[in-house]
Every structure is written in C-alpha cells, then in structure tokens.
Amino acid sequence: MEEKNSFEFLTDEEILERAKPKNEVNRLMLKNILLKFGELGELTSVARYLKVSRPFLYKALEERKILSVKIGVKRMIVVRTILNIVD
Predict the structure, then answer these.
(1) Rounded to whole angstroms, how far apart are CA atoms 47 and 41?
(2) CA distances from 8 to 1, 34, 60, 65 (A)
(3) What is the pLDDT along the chain (87 residues), one digit of tens a residue?
(4) What is the distance of C-alpha 36 from the center of its chain?
(5) 14/45 Cα distance (integer angstroms)
(6) What is the pTM of this model?
C-alpha cells in the first residue's frame, strides 16, 4: 500500500490534518458539506449527500480514512475528514 494512502497508524489529529482542502474544489465542497451538516453528520445522511453507499463509508471508517463518533445509536461522521475519500 502506498504511504500517502495508509491511514492505519495515524492518530486522529493526523487524519484531520490530511483532510485539509488541497484546492479550490475541495474548499468549496467542504464549505457546502459543513453548511449542510455542521461538524458532525449522521452516516446515512452523509452517504446519501455524497451519493455513496453506507458500506463504502463503513469501509473508509475501518481503514481510518474518516473519523466518527457514536452518539446513542447514531454513527456520526466527522465531516471534515470526508476530504480523505475524495479524489
């Protein structure tokens, strides 16, 4: 696996650092998704917004590309980390 794509051993802070916008498209996307969800977005709603499957987001969580917290029964995605799964 390429080093730049390996998130397995990164701390949460390092994952957040990698999620910084790298270009204008990323900046606009992050701005729009933050306006829609705020800092945390429910996994199903984020998947629907991005037009990806829930298993896709669960895989990204498992690979530590995105971060989440569980509040009650809801899995909440740390929205800023979405940029780690966008090309």
Answers:
(1) 10
(2) 11, 25, 11, 8
(3) 344 567 878 899 999 999 999 999 999 999 999 999 999 999 999 999 999 999 999 999 999 999 999 999 999 999 999 999 987
(4) 14
(5) 25
(6) 0.85
